C-alpha cells in the first residue's frame, strides 16, 4: 500500500530562491509646476475590440521625442544586453549609427518607428538570454521617488515575452539586475499592440533579501524592458507609450491589467496508473505538457535510460512519457549522472509545463500561471536517491527535497515549506522533479502520480500497474 507522509515540513530540506542566470513624479504637480501632459494616440489592442484612445503622461512614441517625461534632467532611453552574464544577445535598430545610446540616435529611431522599435536577437553564452531597452529615471548617482505613480502602464507589441524591471539604488550600492523587482509582460499577437498595466507591488524580486517593487519605487533609478527567450530566437518589438498607473491611461477599464491566469484546477493533476491515461497533466490553459532535461547544455553528460526503451524520434516528450507510464504505471527510468568535469553535481529531471501553448504557431511556449490555490504539491513516487521537487518561473525556482523511498510513497510539501516568501507561485511556469549526484552513478525512479495539496487523496492509484525496478 502507499505510505502517506503528509506535510513533510520536517522531512523536506529547504532551499531558497535561486536566480538562474541575472519626490519627483510625472503627471503630478512638481514643485508647484504641472508637468505637461503628452498627446494621446489611438492604438488597437488585441484584447479588446476597435481602437481605444490612451493618454501617455510619461512618453508617447507618436510624438517623435525620445525623452521620457520624468520631470528632471534624466528620462533618456538606452539599450541593454546580457554581455555581463557572458551572453551575446543584441538589438538591431532600424536606423544605422555607431552610438546607439546617444539621445540623438534614439530620437531618430523613435521618429522612424513612431515608438521605440527594433529586432532582438538572442545569442548564446548566457543561461537566460536577453536584450532590451531602459529609461534612465534619475541622473547619475541619484534616485527618484516614483511611488506615487502607483505602478506602470505600457503599450507595446512584441514577438518575444518581455520582463519589466524596476532598477533602484540601495544606499550607496547599486543593486544587481538579477535582484531587481520584475514582472512578466506576455508577447502580443503578431502585428497588434496591447496596453498592459501593473502596480508596483506586483513587481516581485527573485531574492527575499532585496526590496519589493513598492520599496524600490521610492528610490528608483531606471525602468528596464528586457525581451527574453531561448538562444538563437529573435523577435520584433515596438514600445508605443509609457504611463504611470495612476494618471496615464484615460480608459483604464479597457486596458489589460497584468495578472497571471489563476490555475483553479485542483485535485489529481496526473495519474500514471489511470485507466484513461492522458499524456497531458490536468492543469488547463493549454498546458500540462511533460518535458525532460539534463545538464548537457552546460557541459554535463547525464542522461536517462527509459524502462520502455528508446523514444520514437517522431514522438513529443509528452507522448513518450505517456507511453512509458502506460507500460510501468508512472514515469519510470534510470538516471545516469556525469557532470562532465563541471564543479556542480550532474543532474537530470522531468518537468511539467503548467500554462500555455503559442496560439499562433502551436509551438510549446511556457507562460506564467497563479497556482497559489493548490496550496502545495503531493507526489507519489519511488526513487533510489533523494528527489528535488521544484516550482520554477522564467528566471528562478523554489523547492524542497523529498526523501528516497524504495517502495511507493506519497509525500506532500506546501508552498511555505518551499520558502515561497516572494510569491513565485503566482507566476509559476513549471513543476520539476530533479535528481542530482556529484559521483558517476545511476539511480532508478518512478513518478507515479502528482496532485494538489488542497485536495486530500486526490489520485486513485492502482499499485498493481506499478512495475518494480
Q: Radius of gyration in whole Å, from Cα?
A: 24 Å
CATH architectural type of the largest domain = Sandwich
CATH topology of the largest domain: Jelly Rolls
Low-confidence stretches: 1-54, 250-254, 358-364
Apparent shape: elongated
CATH H-level superfamily of the largest domain: Galactose-binding lectin
Main sheet specs: 7 strands, mixed
Which class do the helix and strand fractions yield?
A: mainly beta
Region (Disordered): 29-48
Protein name: Lipoprotein
Organism: Fibrobacter succinogenes (Bacteroides succinogenes)
Biased composition (Low complexity): 39-48
Topology, please?
Elements: E1 3-5, E2 13-19, E3 40-44, E4 51-55, E5 59-60, E6 76-80, E7 90-92, H1 103-113, E8 116-121, E9 130-136, E10 151-158, E11 161-170, E12 173-174, E13 182-185, E14 194-199, H2 213-216, E15 220-228, E16 234-244, E17 256-257, E18 268-271, E19 290-294, E20 303-306, H3 317-328, E21 331-337, E22 346-353, E23 355-357, E24 364-367, E25 376-383, E26 387-392, E27 396-402, E28 405-414, E29 430-437, E30 441-452
Parallel strand pairs: 1-28, 14-17
Antiparallel strand pairs: 2-27, 3-4, 5-16, 6-9, 7-8, 8-16, 9-15, 10-14, 10-16, 11-12, 11-13, 11-15, 18-30, 19-22, 20-21, 21-30, 22-29, 23-24, 25-28, 25-30, 26-27, 26-29
Protein name: Lipoprotein
Biased composition (Low complexity): 39-48
Region (Disordered): 29-48
Short description:
It comes from Fibrobacter succinogenes. This protein has helices spanning 103-113, 213-216, 317-328, and strands spanning 3-5, 13-19, 40-44, 51-55, 59-60, 76-80, 90-92, 116-121, 130-136, 151-158, 161-170, 173-174, 182-185, 194-199, 220-228, 234-244, 256-257, 268-271, 290-294, 303-306, 331-337, 346-353, 355-357, 364-367, 376-383, 387-392, 396-402, 405-414, 430-437, 441-452.
